[in-house]
Structures are given as structure tokens and as C-alpha cells.
Write a structure and sequence with these properties.
Blueprint (H helix, E strand, L loop, with lengths): L1 E2 L2 E2 L4 E9 L2 E10 L2 E10 L6 H13 L6 E7 L4 H6 L24 H12 L6 E6 L5 E3 L2 E5 L4 H11 L6 E5 L5 H7 L4 E5 L8 H17 L13 E3 L1 E6 L4 E5 L6 E2 L4 E6 L4 E5 L4 E7 L3 E2 L4 E7 L1
Parallel strand pairs: 5-6, 5-7, 7-11, 9-10, 10-12
Antiparallel strand pairs: 1-2, 3-4, 4-6, 8-18, 9-11, 13-20, 14-16, 14-19, 15-18, 16-17, 18-20
Helix pairs in contact: 1-6
Bound molecules: zinc ion (ZN).
């Protein structure tokens, strides 16, 4: 069969390169199942310092056995390779753009737009389902969660939500995002999820194992593998608040990721030369993630929290 434009036999795997206009190709592994079924696209490393998903995807290259699959896997461990090797926080270093904010693609744009173009051209058309693996970045602490989209058609959103419930992360968070790799895929009719696990430029064996298990849980949900998992207790976050900075300044956090908060709790203080803003919780809930950095710039997320 044909995957990403490459011919591959049933029960085989193949390392391929996805072309990017005027730049280095993106490396991918394609697994064609022994039997036919759905195709799952797994991407990681859209943000180059979010390591848990990247390492999980690296290992999956040797763990997934195409002879055991009813369907196909397209695995891309590092979408933003220059960001990964240079340790660039949240951006593609060549153009300083956040790849998860530049969709839809533009084939006349800078490198971020060209990578997005490659993803749209060579990955989206084959995907029955898409998972994008992230974590808190090097300046963030985060509690494991999955973002499920509401930007697509209802049937697509529902499919993504159903799959999110099968994962082992403790929180699932509704997302209205539209310009990211997974959120644009949803608008193109592909049920998609963004999983966040790990943070702070770190990774651990436990987190990588949990991430790999989540991939297998999705494969099970899609009937690509013949294995079942018990659902774990998961809380849906229907309302979330994302506090961002409007200018550069100092950030003094007062809470930890995963910490339960009460309405009126002081979450942190944002300070500039002329101003001091105390941020209080608007409702009882839980901290999803926050910035650990002392110095923050315009547009940075300070803290995010939510409630069921
Ligand atoms: Zn990310």
C-alpha cells in the first residue's frame, strides 16, 4: 500500500523522509500492518525541548511490530529537528516562530510555514486519527493532560473526545485552539488529540513508559492492535483560565502544577518596573501548568488552571 507517498508491503516497516521545501526533510517511520485497518499518525517534537513524547516516539520505532497491526502507523519523532538539536524553546529557530501557531500552511512562508505545509501535504491525507505529543516546555511545570478539540465538526470532535477518555492522563481539557498541528487537522476532518506529559526540559523512564502506554491505548481504541485496557479515572476540565503576560516582566509563582486551588487564592505575582499584578483564582479548581521562569516575555503563559 501507499503511505506518505511511499509503497510498502503488508507487515513491513520503512524509514522514510518527508520533503520540506528548501530545507531538510522530516524523518518518519511507517508501519504497514499485516491486515488492513485505520492509520494512526503520531507526531512529536513540534516543540524541540518537550522530551517525553520525543523519546517515547524514538523508542516506538523499535517497539511497534507491523506484523501485529490491523492498520498502519506513521511515526514522526521530531517534527522540528533544528529546534530539538539547538534546544530552542517553543520555536523553530530559523524564523523564531511557534510551529504550533502557524497552521494553515503557506508554501511561500518561512521554515515554520514550510514544515506545516509538509505535514498537511504528506501526513494529513493518510490520517484516520492523529496524536501530537507535547510536554511543558523548559520554562514550565505541567500536570499530565490531554487537550481534546472542539474546533472541528461535531462528529470529529466526538471521536477525539471518545479516544481521549481511553488515555491514562488524569485530566482532559477542552481546547478551542485552531492554528496548531492537531487543531488544524481537526478542522480538516481528522480526529486528533494533543497529549502533554513531562516538563522543564526533563524526561523520565516512568513518563516515557506512560506516554508509550497512551499510544497503545489509542491503537487499541482504533482496533489497530488486539489488546484491551481498563479506563482510568479521568477528570474533564470544561472551563480553563490561561493567564498570559501583556509585556516583559518578573513572575513569582505561588502554586504547583496539579495543586488544588480555592477561589480567591493568590496564584502568583507579575511585576514590571511600574506595575504589580496579583493573580487570584476565579474559582475552585486545579493548576494545569505554570511558568517556572523568573523572567517572562509578552505572550508567555504565566499559569493555567481549570475546573470540571
Ligand atoms: Zn508543546
Amino acid at each position: 500500500m501507499i503511505l506518505c507517498g511511499h509503497e510498502i508491503a503488508y507487515g513491513q516497516k520503512k524509514e522514510i523522509e518527508i520533503p520540506v521545501i528548501n530545507s531538510n526533510p522530516i524523518k518518519a517511520s511507517i508501519f504497514c500492518g499485516e491486515k488492513e485497518g485505520k492509520t494512526l499518525v503520531i507526531t512529536a517534537g513540534v516543540h524541540g525541548c518537550e522530551y517525553v513524547g520525543i523519546e517515547a516516539a524514538q523508542r516506538l520505532k523499535n517497539i511497534i511490530n507491523p506484523k501485529e497491526l490491523c492498520g498502519n502507523i506513521i511515526l514522526v519523532p521530531i517534527v522540528n529537528e533544528s529546534g530539538f538539536f539547538s534546544g530552542a524553546k517553543q520555536v523553530v529557530p530559523e524564523d523564531n516562530q511557534n510551529l504550533n501557531r502557524v497552521f494553515p500552511a503557506d508554501e511561500n512562508g518561512t521554515l515554520s510555514k514550510l514544515i506545516a505545509h509538509a505535514v498537511q501535504t504528506y501526513l494529513y491525507p493518510y490520517a484516520d486519527f492523529l496524536i501530537d505529543l507535547h510536554s511543558g516546555d523548559i520554562n514550565e511545570e505541567l500536570f499530565p493532560l490531554v487537550f481534546f478539540p472542539v474546533a472541528g465538526e461535531q462528529r470529529v470532535n466526538e471521536k477525539a473526545l471518545e479516544a481521549a477518555k481511553c488515555l491514562s492522563v488524569p485530566y482532559r481539557v477542552k481546547s478551542t485552539a485552531k492554528n496548531g498541528l492537531y487543531s488544524y487537522a481537526v478542522q480538516q476532518g481528522i480526529p486528533s488529540l494533543l497529549i502533554e506529559r513531562g516538563f522543564g526540559g526533563l524526561w523520565s523512564e516512568n513518563e516515557v513508559s506512560a506516554c508509550i502506554e497512551d499510544i497503545f491505548r489509542i491503537m487499541s481504541y482504533l482496533n489497530i492492535i488486539d489488546k484491551s485496557y481498563d479506563n482510568i479515572n479521568q477528570t474533564e476540565i470544561s472551563i480553563a483560565v490561561y493567564e498570559e503576560t501583556e509585556c516583559n516582566g518578573f513572575w513569582y509563582t505561588n502554586k504547583k502544577a496539579g495543586e488544588e486551588i480555592k477561589q480567591g487564592d493568590l496564584l502568583g505575582v507579575f511585576q514590571t518596573a511600574n506595575d504589580k499584578r496579583c493573580i487570584f483564582a476565579e474559582f475552585d479548581g486545579v493548576v494545569l501548568y505554570y511558568t517556572t521562569a523568573l523572567g517572562v516575555q509578552k505572550g508567555d503563559a504565566l499559569i493555567a488552571y481549570g475546573r470540571a
